[in-house]
Fold:
Amino acid sequence: MFDRWFNRTLNRTWGFIEDRAGIPKWALRPQPAFTFKPSYWTGAFVVTAFLYQVVSGLLLLLYYQPSVNPTYTACGQVAGQLSSSPAAWCSTSYIVNSLPMGSLLLSSHLYGSYAMIFLAIVHFYRGYYLGVYKAPREFSWMVGTLLMLTTLGMGFTGYILPYTQISYNATQVGLVLALRLPTFGTLLGPFILADGTGQGLLSRMFAAHVVLLPLALGALLYAHISLFEAHGIAPPASSDPVQRRRFTAKEDESGVPFWPHIFFYMTKWALLYLGLLFGIAALWPWQLPTYVGNTAAPQAVTEPDWYFLWLFKMVDFQGITPVLAIGITTAVILYVLLLPFLDRSPRTHPRDRPLFLFIGNSLMGFFILMTVWGGLTPGLAIPPDQVALRIAPIVAVNAVVVSWFYLRYRASYRARLEARERALRLPGIYAVAPAGRPSSAGRPTAAGAGGH
Structure:
């Protein structure tokens, strides 16, 4: 009773606001009622994480100093003596140790970047398995792929900003790999390295992290949302080759409006996300490693953040040069980017796409293995036989499982077709019409419909 009264009151109140503010002119399109499940809103979760990164990043900018020049302050105290430390590291230390709620702010920004990348990967694999990249959403998929690459670029450029020895070493290795990119590597060199000094590198990374990549991310996000508005949300995955891939205008009118229902729905999940993020940041605050050039500290192991561990570990394989590693990475990126034009099947259900299901599973297993392996043994050279011993079982098991499920599905599908054909040949299923004339109903009777 209260729910109905509340909904009626909300609709009347919001109807008045819509009429006076002209909200329908700029509100997002309505969505079908079946989409009110978290799995349909993984992209919105990525946007939520991005918005928090913007807000927290702007607050950090009030105190951060992108400089490698030494500062003689208490934040550079090492082993009981006052020593110099780079301003970038010192300002980060001030945020963590002296700024009220600074540790929570910086830790939540760091963990928020992890969450954004993780949610982007979840969003990608959901679209991959459900075939949302098929017509007419090819461009939307390609823009989304560029969005994910830009997000990884944000993580890479932000890693060096605290100017710790670990982040500096990892960035140097990452730059070596980036400069091995075909064609683009030689173009990126002067742009990234600047004058070759630590200050030049930090300044370029800071500019890319704070200005260039956020602008690119905002532009790509606008294009992605515009394409989403043009085509609407993708229907559920289906084995029907003639399934409609767009909703009609009439179906849109009967959908749930964005304001206020979808907005409040997403606000609920956004508040849950922020609560979890702040809780994790408060329970496990980030600890600032030592600064670049601190000779009194033990030698730090070069290790990137988790989302690049797989690439760093691949370089540890004997026989895998940086050129070959970046070549393999480029091939994977091109495969994902051009996937809509490689998978031309009209069916979207994963059981109808065994080859692409196998490739997707293999890539996921490879990335998980390499990430865990890189975290456990960073910088340790791996002989070829050990590589084959760990990667081959993933590919073999994946091939067996995908083939088994696909063959089983095809067998049951043929059985259903044969049962349908037998049912159609039974007498009495269709209404009997005089010879030479179709049935007046022109369609199956109730019994016939039941047979389907």
Observations:
- The longest strand covers residues 70-71.
- Residues 76-82, 429-452 have pLDDT under 50 and may be disordered.
